[in-house]
Amino acid sequence: MSTKHLKKGDAQPAPPEGGKLRLYSMAFCPYSHRARLALAAKGVPFDIVNINLLDKPDWLTSVQPQGKVPALDAGGGQIVIESLDIADFLDGKFPEPPLWPADADTKARHKKLIDDFGKVTKIFYEAVYGKEKRPLGEYLEEIVAALQPFEDELVAGGNTFFGGTRPGMLDYMIWPWAERAKVPSIINKHEMNFPKDKFPKLLAWRDAMKEEAAVKAQAVDTERHARFSSAYVDGTLDYDSV
């Protein structure tokens, strides 16, 4: 996956050819990662324009007035923003394979779990980017509590994935942080000893997700994620040399 990021002074790319969708992204952004996973899972032809978010090109606001990523150019002047809205849009426009469960109750439960996963992302960002560092054990204790409902959901479902026999919306929407799970340990130079015996289903899910084609196609190495986060924290970030 290309990680070249366009910045101020770079020309706006020509429209994509052949009816492709275009995703304005950032290679290390987990929310852009969500959108890339949804596109890859649908098998939709698309191209990626990565944006340097510290030095944005002037033309970006003509695409997305807030200058945010991810932003999906769906053609015909339609721009979809926010990772969950992009994934929902794609699931409606390209029905196969479906990402949401067909059962209404399961879908509602999975939507709530995606919303609740915000507790995990909040702890993750505090552990990586927070100015007032706490002992990693405190972050770990909070993450373990926040992840318990996800272990319980996999146990209740009886399948490898939240989506059943293959990944679905919940799987893809939480995966970006699973891919980055080792970053707090690397950044803080201290291992977070995740209690493996407490989460056998989630650990099996993690291993299975790593083998999925969409996940492999959009993966970034853990060490690169850590280098990005470290450089962001210490103010030395150069997107294209991470």
Keywords:
globular; Glutaredoxin; alpha/beta; Glutathione S-transferase Yfyf (Class Pi), Chain A, domain 2; 50% helix; 242 residues
Rg over CA atoms:
18 Å
What's the count of strands? 5
Please tell me the total number of domains: 2
Quick one: biggest sheet?
A: 5 strands, mixed
Please report which band the strand proportion falls in: under 5%, 5-15%, 15-25%, 25-35%, 35-45% or over 45%.
Answer: 5-15%
What are the segments in which pLDDT stays under 50 over at least 5 consecutive residues? none
SS field, number of helical segments: 11
What is the name of the CATH architecture of the largest domain?
Up-down Bundle
> What is the CATH fold-level name of the largest domain?
Glutathione S-transferase Yfyf (Class Pi), Chain A, domain 2
Run of helices and strands: EEHEHEEHHHHHHHHH
Query: Distance between the terminal alpha carbons, to the nearest Å?
Result: 14 Å
CATH class of the largest domain: Mainly Alpha
- Spatial strand arrangement across the major sheet: 1-3-2-4-5
Structural class: alpha/beta
What general outline do the C-alpha atoms trace?
globular
Helicity, as a percent range: 40-55%
Instruction: Give the rounded overall mean pLDDT.
Output: 94
